[in-house]
Amino acid sequence: MEITNSAKRPSLVLSLIPIVVMVVLLFFTIHIFGSDALSGGSQVVLLLTTACCSALAMGFCRVKWKKIEEAICTNILGIATALLILLLIGALSGSWMISGVVPTLIYYGMQVLSPTFFLASSCIICAIVSVMTGSSWTTIATIGVALMGIGEALGFSTGWTAGAIISGAYFGDKISPLSDTTVLASSTTNTPLFTHIRYMMYTTVPTMLITLIIFTVAGFTFDHANASQAMSFAASLKDTFHISAVLMIVPVVTGILIAKRVALLITLFISALLAAVFALLFQPNLLQQIAGAESINAASMFKGAFITLYGSTQLETGNEMLNSLVSTRGMAGMMNTIWLIICAMCFGGAMTASGMLETITSVFMHFMKRRAGMVASTVFSGLTLNICTADQYISIILTGNMFKEIYRKKGYESRLLSRTTEDAVTVTSVLIPWNTCGMTQATILSVPTLTYLPYCFFNLISPLMSIIIAILGFKIKKHHEEVQD
Fold first, then answer.
1. How far apart are CA 366 and CA 285, in angstroms?
2. 47 in Cβ contact with 226 (< 8 Å)
3. 412 vs 298, 378, 400, 483, CA distance in Å?
4. The Cα angle at residue 325 between residues 218 and 114, in degrees rounded to 5
Protein backbone atom coordinates (compact mmCIF):
# COMPACT_ATOMS: atom_id res chain seq x y z
CA MET A 1 0.00 0.00 0.00
CA GLU A 2 1.40 3.38 -0.99
CA ILE A 3 1.39 6.45 1.21
CA THR A 4 -1.19 9.06 0.25
CA ASN A 5 -0.08 12.43 -1.14
CA SER A 6 -0.90 14.18 2.13
CA ALA A 7 1.27 11.76 4.09
CA LYS A 8 4.88 12.44 4.90
CA ARG A 9 7.55 9.81 4.27
CA PRO A 10 8.94 8.64 7.62
CA SER A 11 12.64 8.94 8.34
CA LEU A 12 14.78 5.88 9.04
CA VAL A 13 15.08 6.81 12.72
CA LEU A 14 11.31 7.12 13.08
CA SER A 15 10.78 3.87 11.16
CA LEU A 16 13.10 1.97 13.47
CA ILE A 17 11.32 3.09 16.65
CA PRO A 18 8.54 0.43 16.41
CA ILE A 19 11.18 -2.25 15.74
CA VAL A 20 13.21 -1.16 18.77
CA VAL A 21 10.09 -1.06 20.94
CA MET A 22 9.16 -4.56 19.78
CA VAL A 23 12.65 -5.94 20.48
CA VAL A 24 12.71 -4.43 23.99
CA LEU A 25 9.22 -5.65 24.85
CA LEU A 26 9.94 -9.11 23.45
CA PHE A 27 13.15 -9.30 25.47
CA PHE A 28 11.28 -8.74 28.72
CA THR A 29 8.38 -10.95 27.63
CA ILE A 30 10.67 -13.86 26.77
CA HIS A 31 12.61 -13.32 30.02
CA ILE A 32 9.43 -13.38 32.11
CA PHE A 33 7.34 -15.98 30.31
CA GLY A 34 10.07 -18.17 28.79
CA SER A 35 8.75 -20.76 26.35
CA ASP A 36 5.18 -19.77 27.29
CA ALA A 37 5.62 -16.40 25.57
CA LEU A 38 3.77 -17.70 22.51
CA SER A 39 0.71 -18.36 24.65
CA GLY A 40 -0.18 -14.69 24.69
CA GLY A 41 2.76 -12.54 25.70
CA SER A 42 4.24 -12.19 22.23
CA GLN A 43 0.81 -11.50 20.76
CA VAL A 44 0.22 -8.62 23.19
CA VAL A 45 3.67 -7.23 22.34
CA LEU A 46 2.75 -7.20 18.65
CA LEU A 47 -0.49 -5.36 19.34
CA LEU A 48 1.30 -2.81 21.53
CA THR A 49 3.91 -2.32 18.82
CA THR A 50 1.14 -1.92 16.25
CA ALA A 51 -0.34 0.83 18.43
CA CYS A 52 3.08 2.50 18.70
CA CYS A 53 3.60 2.38 14.92
CA SER A 54 0.09 3.70 14.25
CA ALA A 55 0.50 6.57 16.73
CA LEU A 56 3.81 7.62 15.17
CA ALA A 57 2.36 7.38 11.65
CA MET A 58 -0.70 9.43 12.52
CA GLY A 59 1.20 11.98 14.62
CA PHE A 60 4.34 12.55 12.55
CA CYS A 61 3.51 11.33 9.05
CA ARG A 62 -0.13 12.44 8.77
CA VAL A 63 -1.29 8.95 7.82
CA LYS A 64 -5.02 8.50 8.42
CA TRP A 65 -6.22 5.69 10.65
CA LYS A 66 -8.52 4.45 7.88
CA LYS A 67 -5.48 3.71 5.70
CA ILE A 68 -3.83 1.76 8.50
CA GLU A 69 -7.03 -0.16 9.19
CA GLU A 70 -7.42 -1.03 5.50
CA ALA A 71 -3.83 -2.28 5.34
CA ILE A 72 -4.36 -4.46 8.43
CA CYS A 73 -7.57 -5.93 6.99
CA THR A 74 -5.86 -6.59 3.65
CA ASN A 75 -3.00 -8.39 5.40
CA ILE A 76 -5.34 -10.59 7.42
CA LEU A 77 -7.45 -11.36 4.36
CA GLY A 78 -4.30 -12.42 2.53
CA ILE A 79 -3.51 -15.15 5.06
CA ALA A 80 -7.10 -16.39 5.54
CA THR A 81 -6.38 -19.58 3.57
CA ALA A 82 -3.22 -20.17 5.58
CA LEU A 83 -5.25 -20.02 8.79
CA LEU A 84 -7.61 -22.70 7.48
CA ILE A 85 -4.59 -24.78 6.50
CA LEU A 86 -3.20 -24.49 10.03
CA LEU A 87 -6.50 -25.71 11.50
CA LEU A 88 -6.50 -28.74 9.20
CA ILE A 89 -2.84 -29.37 10.04
CA GLY A 90 -3.85 -29.61 13.70
CA ALA A 91 -6.58 -32.09 12.83
CA LEU A 92 -4.23 -34.12 10.66
CA SER A 93 -1.46 -34.22 13.27
CA GLY A 94 -3.86 -35.60 15.85
CA SER A 95 -5.43 -38.19 13.57
CA TRP A 96 -2.10 -39.40 12.20
CA MET A 97 -0.80 -39.97 15.71
CA ILE A 98 -3.82 -41.71 17.23
CA SER A 99 -4.49 -43.80 14.12
CA GLY A 100 -1.02 -45.31 14.53
CA VAL A 101 0.50 -43.86 11.35
CA VAL A 102 3.24 -41.88 13.10
CA PRO A 103 3.88 -44.59 15.76
CA THR A 104 4.30 -47.16 12.97
CA LEU A 105 6.83 -44.94 11.23
CA ILE A 106 8.71 -44.47 14.50
CA TYR A 107 8.63 -48.18 15.29
CA TYR A 108 10.04 -49.24 11.94
CA GLY A 109 12.56 -46.41 12.12
CA MET A 110 13.79 -47.76 15.45
CA GLN A 111 14.69 -51.04 13.77
CA VAL A 112 17.53 -49.42 11.84
CA LEU A 113 19.27 -48.10 14.94
CA SER A 114 22.81 -49.37 15.53
CA PRO A 115 25.61 -47.91 17.66
CA THR A 116 27.80 -47.02 14.68
CA PHE A 117 25.03 -45.37 12.70
CA PHE A 118 23.13 -43.99 15.69
CA LEU A 119 23.74 -40.31 14.92
CA ALA A 120 22.75 -40.62 11.26
CA SER A 121 19.79 -42.83 12.19
CA SER A 122 18.62 -40.37 14.83
CA CYS A 123 18.79 -37.57 12.29
CA ILE A 124 16.79 -39.60 9.76
CA ILE A 125 14.17 -40.73 12.30
CA CYS A 126 13.62 -37.19 13.55
CA ALA A 127 13.42 -35.97 9.95
CA ILE A 128 10.73 -38.54 9.10
CA VAL A 129 8.71 -37.84 12.24
CA SER A 130 9.00 -34.08 11.72
CA VAL A 131 7.89 -34.34 8.09
CA MET A 132 4.91 -36.44 9.16
CA THR A 133 3.91 -34.21 12.07
CA GLY A 134 5.09 -30.86 10.69
CA SER A 135 6.53 -29.88 14.05
CA SER A 136 10.16 -29.79 15.15
CA TRP A 137 9.08 -28.92 18.69
CA THR A 138 6.86 -32.00 18.98
CA THR A 139 9.52 -34.23 17.44
CA ILE A 140 12.27 -33.01 19.77
CA ALA A 141 10.04 -33.10 22.85
CA THR A 142 9.00 -36.68 22.17
CA ILE A 143 11.24 -38.96 20.11
CA GLY A 144 14.12 -36.53 20.62
CA VAL A 145 13.99 -36.97 24.39
CA ALA A 146 14.00 -40.74 23.96
CA LEU A 147 16.96 -40.60 21.57
CA MET A 148 18.89 -38.42 24.05
CA GLY A 149 18.65 -41.22 26.61
CA ILE A 150 19.67 -43.83 24.06
CA GLY A 151 22.59 -41.70 22.91
CA GLU A 152 23.84 -41.32 26.46
CA ALA A 153 23.65 -45.09 26.95
CA LEU A 154 25.61 -45.62 23.75
CA GLY A 155 28.37 -43.26 24.88
CA PHE A 156 27.69 -40.24 22.68
CA SER A 157 28.21 -36.74 24.05
CA THR A 158 25.03 -34.73 24.59
CA GLY A 159 26.12 -32.11 22.07
CA TRP A 160 26.46 -34.63 19.24
CA THR A 161 23.17 -36.37 20.01
CA ALA A 162 21.24 -33.13 20.38
CA GLY A 163 22.78 -31.84 17.15
CA ALA A 164 21.61 -34.91 15.22
CA ILE A 165 18.12 -34.69 16.70
CA ILE A 166 17.74 -30.96 15.99
CA SER A 167 19.18 -31.27 12.48
CA GLY A 168 16.65 -33.93 11.55
CA ALA A 169 13.73 -32.23 13.28
CA TYR A 170 14.32 -28.91 11.52
CA PHE A 171 14.76 -30.62 8.16
CA GLY A 172 11.20 -31.88 8.51
CA ASP A 173 9.92 -28.63 9.95
CA LYS A 174 11.38 -26.81 6.97
CA ILE A 175 9.91 -28.92 4.14
CA SER A 176 6.77 -30.49 5.60
CA PRO A 177 3.49 -29.18 4.15
CA LEU A 178 2.13 -29.66 7.68
CA SER A 179 4.63 -27.22 9.21
CA ASP A 180 3.26 -23.87 10.35
CA THR A 181 6.57 -22.15 9.51
CA THR A 182 6.50 -23.59 5.99
CA VAL A 183 2.93 -22.42 5.50
CA LEU A 184 3.78 -19.04 7.03
CA ALA A 185 6.83 -18.45 4.81
CA SER A 186 4.92 -19.33 1.65
CA SER A 187 1.81 -17.34 2.55
CA THR A 188 3.76 -14.25 3.68
CA THR A 189 5.54 -14.09 0.32
CA ASN A 190 2.44 -15.08 -1.70
CA THR A 191 4.08 -18.28 -2.93
CA PRO A 192 2.02 -21.46 -3.52
CA LEU A 193 2.92 -23.92 -0.76
CA PHE A 194 4.07 -26.83 -2.90
CA THR A 195 5.97 -24.50 -5.24
CA HIS A 196 7.76 -23.24 -2.13
CA ILE A 197 8.51 -26.77 -0.89
CA ARG A 198 9.76 -28.05 -4.26
CA TYR A 199 12.04 -25.04 -4.68
CA MET A 200 13.53 -25.54 -1.21
CA MET A 201 14.74 -28.98 -2.25
CA TYR A 202 17.58 -27.39 -4.26
CA THR A 203 19.17 -26.11 -1.05
CA THR A 204 17.72 -28.50 1.54
CA VAL A 205 18.65 -31.86 -0.01
CA PRO A 206 22.38 -31.06 -0.52
CA THR A 207 22.52 -29.65 3.03
CA MET A 208 20.93 -32.78 4.47
CA LEU A 209 23.26 -35.09 2.52
CA ILE A 210 26.32 -33.23 3.86
CA THR A 211 24.85 -33.42 7.36
CA LEU A 212 24.28 -37.18 7.15
CA ILE A 213 27.80 -37.75 5.85
CA ILE A 214 29.23 -35.86 8.84
CA PHE A 215 27.11 -37.82 11.33
CA THR A 216 27.95 -41.14 9.66
CA VAL A 217 31.68 -40.46 9.78
CA ALA A 218 31.40 -39.28 13.39
CA GLY A 219 29.61 -42.51 14.35
CA PHE A 220 32.75 -44.53 13.69
CA THR A 221 34.78 -42.47 16.15
CA PHE A 222 32.78 -43.29 19.31
CA ASP A 223 32.85 -46.27 21.65
CA HIS A 224 29.40 -47.81 22.16
CA ALA A 225 27.52 -49.78 24.76
CA ASN A 226 24.20 -51.30 23.64
CA ALA A 227 20.86 -50.30 22.21
CA SER A 228 18.65 -51.96 24.80
CA GLN A 229 16.87 -48.69 25.63
CA ALA A 230 15.88 -48.24 22.01
CA MET A 231 14.41 -51.71 21.87
CA SER A 232 12.56 -51.13 25.13
CA PHE A 233 11.03 -47.94 23.77
CA ALA A 234 10.02 -49.67 20.54
CA ALA A 235 8.43 -52.51 22.52
CA SER A 236 6.40 -50.05 24.62
CA LEU A 237 5.28 -48.32 21.44
CA LYS A 238 4.09 -51.61 19.98
CA ASP A 239 2.25 -52.55 23.17
CA THR A 240 0.26 -49.30 23.02
CA PHE A 241 -0.60 -49.15 19.32
CA HIS A 242 -1.61 -51.68 16.73
CA ILE A 243 1.48 -51.37 14.53
CA SER A 244 0.82 -52.41 10.94
CA ALA A 245 2.29 -51.70 7.54
CA VAL A 246 -1.30 -51.30 6.31
CA LEU A 247 -1.36 -47.93 8.09
CA MET A 248 1.14 -46.69 5.53
CA ILE A 249 -1.80 -46.41 3.14
CA VAL A 250 -2.55 -43.03 4.73
CA PRO A 251 0.80 -41.35 3.91
CA VAL A 252 0.87 -43.07 0.52
CA VAL A 253 -2.56 -41.68 -0.40
CA THR A 254 -1.50 -38.28 0.91
CA GLY A 255 1.65 -38.44 -1.22
CA ILE A 256 -0.40 -39.31 -4.31
CA LEU A 257 -2.74 -36.39 -3.73
CA ILE A 258 0.24 -34.07 -3.32
CA ALA A 259 1.90 -35.46 -6.47
CA LYS A 260 -1.31 -34.88 -8.42
CA ARG A 261 -1.38 -31.31 -7.08
CA VAL A 262 -4.78 -31.60 -5.52
CA ALA A 263 -5.67 -28.40 -3.66
CA LEU A 264 -3.92 -28.37 -0.28
CA LEU A 265 -7.10 -27.82 1.75
CA ILE A 266 -8.69 -30.81 0.05
CA THR A 267 -5.54 -32.93 0.49
CA LEU A 268 -5.27 -32.16 4.19
CA PHE A 269 -8.97 -32.78 4.77
CA ILE A 270 -8.94 -36.15 2.98
CA SER A 271 -5.74 -37.21 4.77
CA ALA A 272 -7.09 -36.29 8.21
CA LEU A 273 -10.42 -37.98 7.51
CA LEU A 274 -8.74 -41.13 6.18
CA ALA A 275 -6.50 -41.31 9.26
CA ALA A 276 -9.58 -40.94 11.48
CA VAL A 277 -11.18 -43.89 9.67
CA PHE A 278 -8.03 -45.95 10.21
CA ALA A 279 -8.13 -45.01 13.89
CA LEU A 280 -11.64 -46.48 14.07
CA LEU A 281 -10.41 -49.66 12.41
CA PHE A 282 -7.03 -50.16 14.12
CA GLN A 283 -7.11 -48.27 17.44
CA PRO A 284 -10.64 -48.61 18.93
CA ASN A 285 -9.24 -49.10 22.44
CA LEU A 286 -7.34 -45.82 22.23
CA LEU A 287 -10.45 -43.97 21.05
CA GLN A 288 -12.29 -45.43 24.02
CA GLN A 289 -9.56 -44.13 26.33
CA ILE A 290 -9.67 -40.68 24.73
CA ALA A 291 -13.46 -40.55 25.01
CA GLY A 292 -13.29 -41.59 28.66
CA ALA A 293 -15.83 -44.36 28.06
CA GLU A 294 -16.13 -47.58 30.02
CA SER A 295 -16.51 -49.80 26.97
CA ILE A 296 -15.85 -49.81 23.25
CA ASN A 297 -18.98 -48.90 21.34
CA ALA A 298 -20.03 -46.74 18.41
CA ALA A 299 -20.60 -43.68 20.59
CA SER A 300 -17.21 -43.85 22.34
CA MET A 301 -15.36 -44.42 19.08
CA PHE A 302 -17.20 -41.55 17.39
CA LYS A 303 -16.45 -39.23 20.32
CA GLY A 304 -12.81 -40.31 20.49
CA ALA A 305 -12.29 -39.76 16.77
CA PHE A 306 -13.78 -36.26 16.94
CA ILE A 307 -11.67 -35.30 19.97
CA THR A 308 -8.60 -36.52 18.08
CA LEU A 309 -9.38 -34.06 15.29
CA TYR A 310 -10.17 -30.97 17.33
CA GLY A 311 -8.82 -31.34 20.85
CA SER A 312 -5.95 -32.42 23.06
CA THR A 313 -5.39 -36.09 23.79
CA GLN A 314 -3.38 -37.76 26.53
CA LEU A 315 -2.86 -41.52 26.51
CA GLU A 316 -1.63 -43.57 29.45
CA THR A 317 0.92 -46.05 28.15
CA GLY A 318 2.88 -46.89 31.28
CA ASN A 319 5.93 -45.16 29.79
CA GLU A 320 6.41 -41.47 30.60
CA MET A 321 8.34 -40.75 27.39
CA LEU A 322 5.72 -42.54 25.34
CA ASN A 323 2.92 -40.59 27.04
CA SER A 324 4.52 -37.37 25.85
CA LEU A 325 5.18 -38.78 22.38
CA VAL A 326 1.60 -39.78 21.64
CA SER A 327 -0.08 -36.68 23.07
CA THR A 328 -1.77 -34.48 20.47
CA ARG A 329 -3.30 -30.99 20.36
CA GLY A 330 -5.67 -31.10 17.38
CA MET A 331 -7.12 -27.96 15.85
CA ALA A 332 -7.33 -26.26 19.23
CA GLY A 333 -3.55 -26.58 19.58
CA MET A 334 -3.05 -24.33 16.55
CA MET A 335 -4.90 -21.36 18.03
CA ASN A 336 -1.84 -19.72 19.63
CA THR A 337 -0.04 -19.80 16.27
CA ILE A 338 -3.10 -18.42 14.46
CA TRP A 339 -3.45 -15.73 17.12
CA LEU A 340 0.20 -14.80 16.72
CA ILE A 341 -0.07 -14.60 12.94
CA ILE A 342 -3.13 -12.33 13.09
CA CYS A 343 -1.36 -9.99 15.53
CA ALA A 344 1.75 -10.01 13.33
CA MET A 345 -0.40 -9.11 10.32
CA CYS A 346 -1.69 -6.11 12.29
CA PHE A 347 1.86 -4.95 12.89
CA GLY A 348 2.84 -5.58 9.27
CA GLY A 349 -0.18 -3.64 8.04
CA ALA A 350 0.66 -0.65 10.22
CA MET A 351 4.30 -0.70 9.10
CA THR A 352 3.24 -0.89 5.45
CA ALA A 353 0.57 1.82 5.56
CA SER A 354 2.86 4.20 7.42
CA GLY A 355 5.64 3.78 4.87
CA MET A 356 8.08 2.72 7.58
CA LEU A 357 8.63 -0.72 6.05
CA GLU A 358 9.47 0.87 2.70
CA THR A 359 11.95 3.23 4.38
CA ILE A 360 13.72 0.36 6.13
CA THR A 361 13.89 -1.86 3.03
CA SER A 362 15.28 1.01 0.96
CA VAL A 363 18.45 0.79 3.07
CA PHE A 364 19.07 -2.74 1.83
CA MET A 365 18.81 -1.69 -1.80
CA HIS A 366 22.42 -0.48 -1.64
CA PHE A 367 23.56 -4.07 -1.03
CA MET A 368 21.25 -5.73 -3.51
CA LYS A 369 22.73 -4.76 -6.87
CA ARG A 370 23.28 -8.40 -7.82
CA ARG A 371 21.54 -11.72 -7.20
CA ALA A 372 24.03 -13.04 -4.65
CA GLY A 373 24.01 -9.77 -2.71
CA MET A 374 20.23 -9.79 -2.63
CA VAL A 375 20.04 -13.31 -1.22
CA ALA A 376 22.90 -12.66 1.21
CA SER A 377 21.16 -9.50 2.44
CA THR A 378 17.96 -11.49 2.99
CA VAL A 379 19.86 -14.18 4.91
CA PHE A 380 21.63 -11.61 7.07
CA SER A 381 18.39 -9.73 7.74
CA GLY A 382 16.50 -12.90 8.64
CA LEU A 383 19.22 -14.00 11.03
CA THR A 384 19.40 -10.52 12.56
CA LEU A 385 15.64 -10.46 13.10
CA ASN A 386 15.85 -13.90 14.70
CA ILE A 387 18.41 -12.50 17.13
CA CYS A 388 16.55 -9.24 17.77
CA THR A 389 12.93 -10.41 17.94
CA ALA A 390 13.69 -13.77 19.60
CA ASP A 391 10.90 -15.46 17.65
CA GLN A 392 10.97 -17.28 14.31
CA TYR A 393 7.33 -16.54 13.41
CA ILE A 394 7.78 -12.80 13.75
CA SER A 395 11.11 -12.98 11.90
CA ILE A 396 9.58 -14.90 8.98
CA ILE A 397 6.75 -12.40 8.65
CA LEU A 398 9.01 -9.36 8.87
CA THR A 399 11.60 -10.77 6.45
CA GLY A 400 8.93 -11.68 3.91
CA ASN A 401 7.23 -8.30 4.14
CA MET A 402 10.49 -6.33 4.06
CA PHE A 403 11.84 -7.90 0.88
CA LYS A 404 8.69 -8.87 -1.02
CA GLU A 405 8.50 -5.64 -3.00
CA ILE A 406 12.26 -5.55 -3.63
CA TYR A 407 12.25 -9.04 -5.14
CA ARG A 408 9.25 -8.09 -7.27
CA LYS A 409 10.93 -4.93 -8.56
CA LYS A 410 14.10 -6.86 -9.32
CA GLY A 411 12.04 -9.34 -11.33
CA TYR A 412 12.74 -12.41 -9.19
CA GLU A 413 10.19 -15.06 -8.31
CA SER A 414 8.53 -14.99 -4.92
CA ARG A 415 9.67 -18.57 -4.33
CA LEU A 416 13.28 -17.37 -4.15
CA LEU A 417 12.34 -15.09 -1.26
CA SER A 418 10.27 -17.74 0.51
CA ARG A 419 13.11 -20.28 0.23
CA THR A 420 15.75 -17.84 1.41
CA THR A 421 13.54 -16.82 4.32
CA GLU A 422 13.24 -20.43 5.49
CA ASP A 423 16.97 -21.07 4.97
CA ALA A 424 17.80 -18.01 7.06
CA VAL A 425 15.09 -17.94 9.72
CA THR A 426 13.38 -21.27 10.40
CA VAL A 427 16.52 -23.33 10.91
CA THR A 428 18.64 -20.75 12.75
CA SER A 429 16.07 -19.86 15.42
CA VAL A 430 17.08 -22.88 17.49
CA LEU A 431 20.72 -21.75 17.55
CA ILE A 432 20.00 -18.53 19.46
CA PRO A 433 19.95 -19.01 23.27
CA TRP A 434 17.32 -16.32 23.94
CA ASN A 435 15.09 -17.21 21.00
CA THR A 436 11.92 -19.08 21.95
CA CYS A 437 13.13 -22.07 19.90
CA GLY A 438 16.61 -22.04 21.44
CA MET A 439 15.25 -21.77 24.97
CA THR A 440 12.62 -24.45 24.43
CA GLN A 441 14.92 -27.06 22.91
CA ALA A 442 17.70 -26.43 25.43
CA THR A 443 15.17 -26.97 28.22
CA ILE A 444 13.57 -30.06 26.68
CA LEU A 445 16.87 -31.80 25.87
CA SER A 446 18.65 -30.50 29.01
CA VAL A 447 21.53 -29.38 26.79
CA PRO A 448 22.65 -25.71 26.71
CA THR A 449 22.16 -24.04 23.35
CA LEU A 450 25.86 -23.24 22.95
CA THR A 451 26.69 -26.90 23.69
CA TYR A 452 24.63 -28.35 20.84
CA LEU A 453 25.12 -25.41 18.43
CA PRO A 454 28.42 -26.64 16.87
CA TYR A 455 26.80 -29.99 16.03
CA CYS A 456 23.61 -28.71 14.38
CA PHE A 457 25.19 -29.07 10.96
CA PHE A 458 21.94 -28.86 8.99
CA ASN A 459 21.00 -25.61 10.70
CA LEU A 460 24.47 -24.10 10.25
CA ILE A 461 24.90 -25.09 6.61
CA SER A 462 21.42 -24.12 5.35
CA PRO A 463 21.96 -20.31 5.23
CA LEU A 464 25.36 -20.80 3.59
CA MET A 465 23.89 -23.20 1.02
CA SER A 466 21.26 -20.61 0.11
CA ILE A 467 23.98 -18.07 -0.65
CA ILE A 468 26.11 -20.62 -2.55
CA ILE A 469 23.16 -21.61 -4.78
CA ALA A 470 22.49 -17.91 -5.40
CA ILE A 471 26.10 -17.35 -6.44
CA LEU A 472 25.86 -20.29 -8.85
CA GLY A 473 22.47 -19.07 -10.09
CA PHE A 474 21.13 -22.63 -10.16
CA LYS A 475 17.39 -22.70 -10.96
CA ILE A 476 17.02 -18.99 -10.18
CA LYS A 477 14.81 -17.38 -12.79
CA LYS A 478 13.26 -13.99 -13.30
CA HIS A 479 9.57 -13.54 -14.07
CA HIS A 480 9.97 -13.51 -17.84
CA GLU A 481 12.02 -16.73 -17.62
CA GLU A 482 9.64 -18.54 -15.27
CA VAL A 483 8.53 -22.01 -16.24
CA GLN A 484 5.83 -24.18 -14.74
CA ASP A 485 6.87 -26.64 -12.02
1. 63
2. no
3. 55, 13, 14, 13
4. 30
